Amino acid sequence: MVSTSTRYQIITTNLTRTKALIEKDPVVKRETDYYNATIKNIKTIDEFIKNDRVFKYAMKAYGLEDMAYGKALIKKLLQEGVSNPLSMANKMSNPLYKEFAKAFDFAGKGAAATSAASATTEAVQKYVQQTLEQQEGKDNQGVQLALYFKRKASSVKTTMGILADKALLKFVQTTFNIPEAASRADLDIQVRNLEKVLNVKDLQDPKKVDKLIQRFSAMWDMNNVTSTTMSPVLTLFNQSNEQGMSIDLMMSIAKLRLGGS
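The structure assignment produced for this chain is given below.
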């Protein structure tokens, strides 16, 4: 089996090509075409929530696919927006909710919210990235975690930012061989323990991030020798079963893994 480090390098070295394969996949292309043709015509929160295809696409793009059933919660989240420090988005521990509320800022921009880059081009880019990470996770969830960490690291400003994100915490625990039971300790103890092994400021340095990924990859492979066994790590990514990938895409990515064209 290809090691986590090797697979991660293959993906990141050929990232543009891999994303292009995903974009051309019939399932992804169909949903993206519909989203692009529809999103700018949506002017209210109710219209956004009621259009199931658009709503689910947006939720997946911003890492909240597992919460697509919680339409009442998301409606309240969007109604309150992010400008008030006491709004729901600002009080929730998971930063993805605030990111989503900012991306679809109906509270602040009104009908213009769905014309913003965060709701159009950026949402599509994020959807493709999410699909890539999920697809990689089917074969090696360590690669999924590494890709996720690379994408999110620079946005983490505090140790609490790691603790609030289950996938980032799993990455750090694996990297530094911290037992999962440590998460049951008091919050202040968890913060102090993480700060002993990781300076959050290092996450702003791409070279240091890459070194952390190298260390993580080695630790992941050491702890997960049976790659055919599905790990519960999938629950870390706020995702449910995706709509499925076409055989053409799977074959194309398989050829990429083997160095084919």
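Interim note for the steering committee: The longest helix spans residues 121-139. Residues 166 and 217 are 18 Å apart (CA to CA).
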